[in-house]
Amino acid sequence: MAVHHKAELGRFLEDYRIGDTYQHPFGRTISEADCTWLSQLTCNTNQNHFNAHLARSNPISAGRIIVNSGLTVALVLGLSVIDTSQNAVANLGWTDIRLTHPVYVGDTIYAESICLDVRPSASRPGLGIVTVFTRGLNQNGDEVVSWTRSVMVPSRATGIGQNYFPEAKSGPLTLPAR
User: Fold this and answer.
1) What 8-state DSSP symbol labels residue 56?
2) Structural domain of residue 96, as residue ranges?
3) pLDDT value of residue 63
4) What is the spatial distance between Cα 64 and Cα 53, in angstroms, rounded to a whole number?
5) What is the CATH number of the domain that holds 148?
6) Which Gene3D superfamilies match (predicted)?
7) Are 9 and 86 in contact (CB under 8 A)?
8) How many beta carbons lie within 10 A of that of residue 9, not counting itself?
9) Are 80 and 134 in contact (CB under 8 A)?
10) Staple 88 to which of 19, 49, 69, 151, CB 3.0 to 4.6 Å?
11) Position 142 in a domain
């Protein structure tokens, strides 16, 4: 029997358990354009992020362009959203951000998280606070960044983040006649 799958992604408050780990499903290879664009967009003028000639003189870069750390943080955050904050209504904070290994143009970044705490909100009924520790890894398994993050997440009972898909005026989607 065919099943109708509603438009729904992510987790709700009751889905989180302390100690659960999530290997977030996407990886992303960072291009030189990614690094240059973010550096320019954020007015970061450190040439190690966009000048290959100058980067060769940096003892940390090993002669390669170092990825802007703002991009590294934003990318790992984005990779983690599907499991940790797809349905969040607010970011509450990041602590202990650590950049533990250089990221270079051409590296592929992955992310994983572990749930540290889940609790109901004291001031917002139907919502709760989820705290996770997230780390980013490069293609070699080197940890490149980590942090602890708290987000406010609704319970399913609130209806937040659900039933938003429009109803087709022409009726439900069906198999065409053969």
Assistant:
1) T
2) 13-156
3) 85
4) 9
5) 3.10.129.10
6) Hotdog Thioesterase
7) yes
8) 10
9) yes
10) 151
11) yes
